[in-house]
DNA sequence: AAAAAAT
């Protein structure tokens, strides 16, 4: 490491993120001509954030507003010698710590850091696991600081300056490919400046924000320090909005009620008796709300969406059964967990259930989750409803609008009120149905509410965590949520593997509100004492069922156990079934279960086809299929095959890149970006890209290898036909596989014609979207 | 088989 420091100082950054240089350059050029090499090196990552840069730059110029904020400035000796002596010192040391972390690898070795004289309490805390994270201390710290606005500003500024780094980090990856990042960075300053955003910068999209930023430098500068306060102020103001909210909330609450209404029906169907039981149980449960009481948030668990449909569950837990129900309009899953009500505590429950199914409702473990009874939300129900109606604050609503989400999708309309009410939520929404916003927006709102009136302290521990199965998905989620969080002055950071920890740790030291990442690195940092989830009150699992698969669930469980007692849990996925049982049993209390009515394949915008081919024709047929206009995503079962296909296509004159776990993160990010940017039209990936990844206009998904699981099929095919667009999915199989394939499709509830195809078949031309007449030879 | 930590 030590070696790395220096040497890298100059070069590495370049190696690391070559792109940064480019982007940065432009950014810098625009903003501030002067930048020193040192800064480049250090801030290269941050470049975009511009905060750091801005801060530094300002130091000289506008300096004082930002002054406090710019850590780097401080470091360099720009140090603010302000009134609040005590706070200052702390700041300086904290700042240093933060900076060091941020510089991470380059500047020092971990050990060195720890030993460093300036290890302060914070450091001790963080580093010393045994100590764990001392909340008290922090609190104390916070207590002392709270002083004046000045102090506050300092914090702000400081964070901001550092911010860039975080962003950049993410940006590093995203930057190239995703303007979103830029977006964020730009957005940052403008958090509060809704108007500006509205005015146009925001809509301009990512890039726009940046610009907008440029446009309102003053504000940013100013707002930088004050913003936080303003935000708070806004909050209260919002409260005004909320005033209205109550109504809305009611409306929202009604939704659940609707659900209830639905229930009756269900009961009528046959679950009736149970329901009564359940009711009985419910009472008890509340009694021990005591446990939950901790969840300060939840008050409204009044409505319980879950019905214990144990009896009904007679069907096998097989996905097929599950699905079968699904198509039925609304409702589909039942996650019966009546017994939960009985159980004194979650843990107890687990023990009980697993050990002895003693309760009346005792569902055997496996059976329990087979069916999830969900309240379905019909599109009609949400017609005319706005995000504001659902209980989101005006800043968030505006941000959503700016992002193109003017009105809530059904899954959003369903889950947002429940999340805001503090309930645990299980929600299933078809791929591309807007799940990220469904949990992200209310999560931000809730975090905001939970710390209303409090200041965002330096080094505060995160209040919410979002777990995703792949790094790309984590990045993507952050891309969606960060602007929302920023709009209300909250910070997010990404914590995922494959990249140096330094920046991530630095961000954590400075303090973030929402952590988004993958299990491995998150657990790693927890174990290192660098990530404290003890104050984390909301945990989200995206692609929850996938996270529950063998080998994935344990780390997830361990991570969730680190979150605050009684923390709210949200599980989202396009395929949500009993697989989440392990987590639901342990972590969810009386969850609200939602799904969107009518979301079956019939209503899908995706066309499915299966080509039965001769194995020897496979390579050529694949090449022929991807030789087309429009973006094509090819799925292969193994990394090696993915690479091989990408090469094959390339050799055939069709630019293609691959995406899989054998590539380093930089390549992964770069290759995905190449597809999103359109520099290549063909991406060959393993299932790493099967879930969650959103690329706007993929109109053809080719499965070079048929998936083994129906869920995999659903997720892979969900990469196309996003947000109502049309898309086509072609699966290549050999004759021997027909039976398996038809079974899989049946489970997925997908109707797809099986067609025999040969190399020069017009069929291939048709599927590729080429005009049959075109006598083009591929390869 | 793949993914998720780092070494």
Automatic annotation (TrEMBL):
UniProt source species: Microbacterium hydrocarbonoxydans
CDD domains noted in UniProt: DEADc, SF2_C_DEAD
Helicase C-terminal domain mapped to chain residues: 605-765
Domain DEAD-box RNA helicase Q: 385-413
Residue segments, region Disordered: 1-364
GO molecular function, one term: hydrolase activity
Record domain Helicase ATP-binding: where: 416-594
Positions of short motif Q motif: 385-413
Protein name: Superfamily II DNA and RNA helicase
Nucleus recorded as keyword: no
GO cellular component terms attached to this protein's record: cytosol
Alphabetical keyword list: ATP-binding, Helicase, Hydrolase, Nucleotide-binding
InterPro entries: DEAD/DEAH_box_helicase_dom, DEAD/DEAH_RhlB, DEAD_box_RNA_helicase, Helicase_ATP-bd, Helicase_C-like, P-loop_NTPase, RNA_helicase_DEAD_Q_motif
Protein family membership: Belongs to the DEAD box helicase family.
Biased composition (Basic and acidic residues): 26-68, 96-143, 152-170, 177-315, 323-346
């Amino acid at each position: 490491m030590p070696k790395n420091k220096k040497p890298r100082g100059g070069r590495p950054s370049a190696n690391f993120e070559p792109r940064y240089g480019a982007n940065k350059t432009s950014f810098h050029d625009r903003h501030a001509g002067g930048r020193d090499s040192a800064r480049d090196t250090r801030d290269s990552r941050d470049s975009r954030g511009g905060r750091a840069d801005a801060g530094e730059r300002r130091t000289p110029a506008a300096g004082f507003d930002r002054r406090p904020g710019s850590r780097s400035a401080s470091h360099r000796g720009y140090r603010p010698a302000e009134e609040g002596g005590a706070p200052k010192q702390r700041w300086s040391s904290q700042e240093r710590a933060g900076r060091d972390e941020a510089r991470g690898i380059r500047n020092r070795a971990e050990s060195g850091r720890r030993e460093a004289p300036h290890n302060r309490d914070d450091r001790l805390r963080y580093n010393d696991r045994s100590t764990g994270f001392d909340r008290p201390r922090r609190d104390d710290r916070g207590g002392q600081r709270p002083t004046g606005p000045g102090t506050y500003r300092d914090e702000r500024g400081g964070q901001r300056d550092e911010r860039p780094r975080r962003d950049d980090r993410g940006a590093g990856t995203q930057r190239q490919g995703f303007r979103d990042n830029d977006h964020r960075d730009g957005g940052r300053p403008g958090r509060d400046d809704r108007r500006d955003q509205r005015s146009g910068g925001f809509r301009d999209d990512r890039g726009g924000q940046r610009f907008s930023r440029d446009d309102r430098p003053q504000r940013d500068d100013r707002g930088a320090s004050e913003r936080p306060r303003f935000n708070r102020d806004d909050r209260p103001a919002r409260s005004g909005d909320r005033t209205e909210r109550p109504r809305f909330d009611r409306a929202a609450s009604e939704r659940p009620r609707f659900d209830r209404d639905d229930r009756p029906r269900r009961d009528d169907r046959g679950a009736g008796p149970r329901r009564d039981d359940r009711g009985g149980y419910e009472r008890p449960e509340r009694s021990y709300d005591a446990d939950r009481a901790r969840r300060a948030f939840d008050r409204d668990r009044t409505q319980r969406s879950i019905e214990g449909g144990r009896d009904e569950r007679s069907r096998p837990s097989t996905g097929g059964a599950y699905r079968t129900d699904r198509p039925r309009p609304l409702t589909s899953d039942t996650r019966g967990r009546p017994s939960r009500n009985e159980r004194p505590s979650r843990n107890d429950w687990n023990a009980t259930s697993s050990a002895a199914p003693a309760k009346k409702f005792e569902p055997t473990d496996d059976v329990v989750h087979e069916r999830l009874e969900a309240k379905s939300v019909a599109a009609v129900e949400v017609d005319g409803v706005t995000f504001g109606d659902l209980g989101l604050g005006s800043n968030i609503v505006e941000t959503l609008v700016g992002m193109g989400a003017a009105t809530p999708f059904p899954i959003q309309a369903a889950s947002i009120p429940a999340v805001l009410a503090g309930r645990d939520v299980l929600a299933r929404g078809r791929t591309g149905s807007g799940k990220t916003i469904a949990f992200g927006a209310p999560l931000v709102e809730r975090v905001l509410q939970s710390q209303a009136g409090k200041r965002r302290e330096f080094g505060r521990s995160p209040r919410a965590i979002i777990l995703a199965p792949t790094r790309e998905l984590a990045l993507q989620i952050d891309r969606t949520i960060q602007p929302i969080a920023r709009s209300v002055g909250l910070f997010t950071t990404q914590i995922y593997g494959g990249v140096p920890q330094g920046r991530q740790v630095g961000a954590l030291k400075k303090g973030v509100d929402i952590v988004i990442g993958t299990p491995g690195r998150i657990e790693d940092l927890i174990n290192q004492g660098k990530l404290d989830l003890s104050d984390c009150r909301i945990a989200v699992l995206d692609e929850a069922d996938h996270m529950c698969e063998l080998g994935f669930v344990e780390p997830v469980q361990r991570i969730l156990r680190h979150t605050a007692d009684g923390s709210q849990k949200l599980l989202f996925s396009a395929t949500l079934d009993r697989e989440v049982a392990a987590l639901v049993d342990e972590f969810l209390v009386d969850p609200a279960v939602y799904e969107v009515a009518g979301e079956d394949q019939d209503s899908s915008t995706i066309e499915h086809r299966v080509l039965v081919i001769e194995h020897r024709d496979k390579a050529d047929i694949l090449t022929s299929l991807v030789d087309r206009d429009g973006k094509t995503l090819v799925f292969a079962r193994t990394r090696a095959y993915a690479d091989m296909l990408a090469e094959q296509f390339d050799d055939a004159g069709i630019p293609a890149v691959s995406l899989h776990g054998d590539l380093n993160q930089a390549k992964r990010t770069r290759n995905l970006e190449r597809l999103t940017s359109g520099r290549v039209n063909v991406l060959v990936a393993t299932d790493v890209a099967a879930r969650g990844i959103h690329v706007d206009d993929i109109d053809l998904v080719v499965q070079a290898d048929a998936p083994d699981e129906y869920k995999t099929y659903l997720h892979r095919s969900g990469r196309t036909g996003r947000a109502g667009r049309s898309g086509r999915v072609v699966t290549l199989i050999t004759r021997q596989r027909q039976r398996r394939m038809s079974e899989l499709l049946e489970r997925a509830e997908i109707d797809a014609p099986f067609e025999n195809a040969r190399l020069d078949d017009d069929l291939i031309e048709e599927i590729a979207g080429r005009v049959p007449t075109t006598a083009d030879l591929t390869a």
